[in-house]
Amino acid sequence: MRIVIGTDHGGFKLKESLVKFLKSKGHAVKDMGTFSEESCDYPVIGYKVAKLVAAKYYSRGVLICKTGIGMSMVANKVRGVRAALCDKQVIACSSKEHNDSNILVLASSVVSSGEAKKILGAWLTAKHLGGRHARRVRQIKEIEGFEYEGIKKNRS
Question: Count of alpha carbons within 13 Å of 20, Cβ hemisphere only?
Answer without folding.
Answer: 8
